[in-house]
Design goal:
GO terms for molecular function: transmembrane transporter activity. This protein has 15 helices and no strands. By secondary structure, the chain is mainly α.
Length: 372
């Protein structure tokens, strides 16, 4: 079945992702600027906060995925999505501590929701169309983020404050929740196929990829340092999200095997991370293409990692998605902590670290593909 003939629930879930990112991605793009340039906290503090957001967030991901198998993925996804609106109040913070608290509270709820939303998509698709459905989910998800960063950057260009812009982001997040409410639950189409070797191999590869996939805040900081312009820094995130969305739309029309998809994901991250080292001094003209390559990597990973898990994880698909998020979250926790401290010494060490760990993910996938 082609994607164009999929049932409407695929699009409801995908457009829910679009509206969610249309809101909270403006907060994500603002957060490093708020901490480092508004409240003047050291960069390593931002790295620690990002590590906590992903590191503790992985526990919420695992919890959300497990609960979705017990109480239903739709119910858990809606509850988590509604609480993502906590992110919108980050712009009203009067101190760095308040900003961190508000950001983390909303981000944890975003993690709690994600495995359940993926499980919802598995429920409304057949196995042969699943990679295309995940690609569409990712494409619309990130396209919403593109528009969020565009209106954020325009707001900053015209000297609007974070306290004015960010609370408005709660509106699209609430629309996102409404779309999840109107999804019609169906009997779960779960796979009986189980391959522990592939399952745990992909989870471990995703963990290493999490280590190498540093927060987009670091390229934002890099571009601001290179150009001395805040709006060029936040536009970095638009290039990342835009390229990832565009490649997601492309993947929704292509049929690749998961080995090829994940190989391209991890290889492109390794190349892009290494490229930041010699090209730092050339400003946005040289750095934006590397960010686009990181976006390509994200599109492939977010399409083929959950696709593999849905096929080889057995009947408890929510738990499988939770474990995938758990692995990625552990990686983010380790990676962002390391990136924060390494970047405080030199961006060279930070990006070299990211490139090498991405190569580790690549080697795991090549080993799994050879074994299959």
């Amino acid at each position: 079945m082609s994607l164009s003939l999929m049932n409407s629930d695929v699009y409801k879930i995908s457009f829910s992702a679009f509206f969610a990112d249309l809101g909270y991605q403006a907060v994500v793009a603002s957060f490093p600027v708020i901490l480092v340039f508004q409240f003047h906290l050291p960069i390593y503090v931002y790295g620690i906060v990002e590590s906590i957001s992903y590191g503790v967030g992985f526990l919420f991901s695992f919890l959300g995925g497990s609960l979705s198998d017990i109480y239903g993925s739709r119910r858990i996804a809606i509850a988590g999505n509604l609480l993502v609106t906590l992110l919108s109040f980050t712009g009203l913070a009067q101190s760095g501590i308040e900003a961190i608290g508000l950001f983390l509270s909303g981000w944890f709820m975003r993690n709690f929701r994600n495995p359940a939303r993926r499980a919802m998509l598995v429920e409304v698709t057949s196995e042969d169309e699943r990679s295309k459905a995940f690609a569409m989910l990712h494409a619309l998800d990130f396209f919403g983020g593109v528009l969020a960063v565009v209106y954020l950057s325009l707001g900053l260009l015209y000297h609007l404050t974070f306290s004015f812009i960010l609370p408005l982001t709660a509106i699209p997040i609430l629309l996102s929740s409404l779309l999840l409410v109107i999804v019609k639950p169906k009997s779960r189409q779960k796979s009986d196929d189980k391959s522990s070797r592939v399952f745990w191999g992909v989870v471990f590869a995703s963990m290493l990829f999490g280590i190498s996939s540093f927060s987009p805040g670091f390229p934002i900081i890099t571009v601001v340092q290179s150009t001395s312009r805040l709006y060029l820094g936040t536009l970095t995130y638009a290039f990342y999200l835009g390229s990832s969305s565009g490649f997601g739309f492309l993947l929704s029309r292509l049929k690749l095997n998961w080995g090829t998809g994940l190989t391209l994901a991890y290889l492109s991250t390794a190349i892009a991370s290494a490229g930041f080292i010699p090209l730092f001094k050339y400003g946005e003209v040289a750095l934006y293409p590397l960010v686009i390559l990181l976006g390509l990597s994200s599109a492939f990973a977010e399409t083929y990692e959950p696709t593999v898990i849905s096929k080889v994880g057995g009947k408890d698909v929510g738990r499988g998605m939770g474990l995938l998020s758990l692995g990625r979250g552990i990686g983010y926790f380790i990676g962002n902590t390391a990136m924060g401290f390494l970047y405080s010494v030199s961006y060279v060490y930070a990006y070299a670290f990211g490139s090498l760990t991405a190569l580790g993910s690549l080697l795991i996938i090549l080993f799994l593909v050879r074994g299959r």
